[in-house]
Design brief:
This protein is mostly helical and about 80 residues long. It has a domain at about 15-65. The protein has helices at about 15-35, 40-60.
């Protein structure tokens, strides 16, 4: 997205577990939208924390899920990584 690298979901998650976590992420994102519509900053803060928690559970944030020693280029510009064209 916009020239940045984003971490993929941990491929070792089972399909049912991955879907459960994706469902939690989508619920949290809907809660963010509802809080913004309601102009409720506290509810938005709580919902954003739930989004973060769901993304960590999916392996998209937090500690890396791979163990090959490769560095984490998450959120780096592609041009500033070994993946640059």
């Amino acid at each position: 997205m916009r020239g940045r690298l984003w971490r993929a979901t941990d491929p070792t998650l089972g399909e049912e577990e991955r879907q459960r976590r994706v469902d939690a992420l989508m619920d949290a994102r809907r809660a963010v939208a509802a809080a913004k519509r309601a102009e409720d900053p506290q509810a938005e803060k709580t919902a954003r924390a739930a989004v973060h928690e769901a993304k960590v559970a999916l392996g998209e944030r937090g500690p890396v899920w791979w163990d090959d020693g490769a560095p984490d280029y998450t959120r780096k510009l592609v041009a500033n990584t070994p993946y640059a064209p």
